[in-house]
Amino acid sequence: MKCPFCNEADTKVIDSRPADDNSSIRRRRQCEKCGKRFTTYEKLETMPLMVIKKDNSREVYDRSKIESGILHSCHKRPVSSQQIAAMVDEIETQVFNREEKEVESTVIGELVMKKLQEVDEVAYVRFASVYREFKDVNTFMEEIGKLLKK
Fold first, then answer.
1. How is the cofactor bound (predicted)?
2. Percentage with pLDDT > 70 across the chain
3. Edge-to-edge order in the sheet of strand 58-60
4. Hey, which of 1, 23, 27, 134 would disulfide with 129, CB 3.0 to 4.6 Å?
5. Alpha-carbon distance 45 to 102, whole Å?
């Protein structure tokens, strides 16, 4: 590892510890030449997860899209930012635990709807109305009817 201060290639690790919930390693290093210290992070390199869209196109998985959809659904609802972050984390964990290189957007959408239904039913209906592309009031009422039966 090159020193960012003097470009010397000879540095030593003086401390290592887990970082980011054990998903990476934080290393404190010291340059053998100038003596300055700096921090590096080591993370497992993985193939990007691809999402198969409804039109069969593919794009790289983007956590912010899930977060954005949930944020819009929970707008002016009694759902805290911690709850939203926890939902996104849980959904992302479920997606990555599938250990597949590609996942259909419908799978992600269903996971989001399941989590929203557990947290706030109004947010769930908001998300479902966009996700399932409700065409009219009858479709909307059918979904609310399903909620009331539970």
1. Binds 1 zinc ion.
2. 99
3. 58-60, 50-52, 102-104
4. 134
5. 17
